[in-house]
Amino acid sequence: TIFNFVTILQPLSLIFFIIIIFYLNKSININTLILLHSISFLIYGLIFILFIIKNLKLKFIFPKKEFILKDIKIGLPIIIATLVVVLVEGGDRFIISFFLDFKKLGSYIPAYMIGSIILIIPKVLSIVIFPLIAQRVDEKKTKEAYNLIDRSYRIYLYLSIPFFFGSIPTSYYILKFFA
To answer: What is the DSSP string of 72-97?
Structure first.
């Protein structure tokens, strides 16, 4: 089938490119190998894209201006909030490095990572619950919206309180293992 042919084409094209470059230059370095690998995957990807477009008869539809503005209005605050979270979570290490030596900073990073595991839960809950709450409020079902909020707080507390108290006796050994 065409899928099998294209799947075999990528490693064969890589080998073919390596032989050609080696024949022309009499040597190959790591940069050349990475470039040849990228070119072979680009060819592989383009053939697959053309195959998909041909078989699925995809048409490119450009959205109207109103939809783009609506998406920007909804998405821009989310992007900005995510950017701030990434800068705060990643940037604290650089600020702390001015005050601590590298050994203590090396202990801080695993401790922060282990401590931030529990923060995954409210992030997931906020992504899932907020649209549901907004939908309940729009449908004038405020009682259900309050129940969703209450359940999400309970889920977080049921998981975070044992995590907190469990991390007190085990944190020293975990940090010794990672640091």
So the answer is: HHHHHHHHHHHHHHHHHHHHHHHHHH
